[in-house]
Amino acid sequence: MAEPDPWLWLRQFTPARLALGRSGAGLPTAQWLAFQLAQAEARDAVGAALDLPHLQQGLASLGLPWLALGSLATSREQYLLRPDLGRQLSAASQASLAAVAPPPVPPLALVLADGLSAEAVNRHALPLLAQLRPHLQAAGWPLAPVALVQQGRVAVGDPIGHGLGATAVLVLIGERPGLSAPHSLGAYLTWQPRPGLTDEARNCVSNIRPEGLPYPAAADKLRYLLGEMRRLQLSGVQLKDEQPPGHLGGGEACSIGLS
What we know:
By secondary structure, the protein is of the alpha/beta class.
């Protein structure tokens, strides 16, 4: 019979695997099966694909035009083995980007990329944008067409933002899945995006999901960081998060990116 763990009460404070109990020298069957399920969900998240029809329909309902792009990685396997290819646009995507009419005012570029958990984008990108859109409108941010990037990594936002003549780029991307969070969304912001930038030039807000950093709190944090970026005309390690406490409901903000 499984022995209850005396530290069981701690589980109300965290989804981490603690106080799992014991059955002989091993874990109880239910906990072992839950661990196997979490591993399977993490593996599935890495191999998942963007649900383009869902995202395109959702963007249209928000009044946001979109542009379908892809990186130099031609398959998921190549994407995982060659991170450098996921940071660069394919020739066809570069041509599509060049065909976009330049806006009269430098815009904010929005990028949705699959990253290492496309399901995170499928689940969380649209609800987050619905919360963020009023903030962007109130701040007077002109928006470029939203780039939907397959097999993309964080840095793919740099050539996209540069090609669109954007003042800043916001990349929403699936984060590396963990055993308690296989569908976590990350948001990466860069001022004056251009090819060749490295991770210290970016700011990020991570763990965006209902169980982590809720959409309203994430949208408010992004509003603040975008406003500070525009005011100071910089991003990354030079941009300090000095927003008063009490805004975040969980999750974290950081100043480096997922390459």
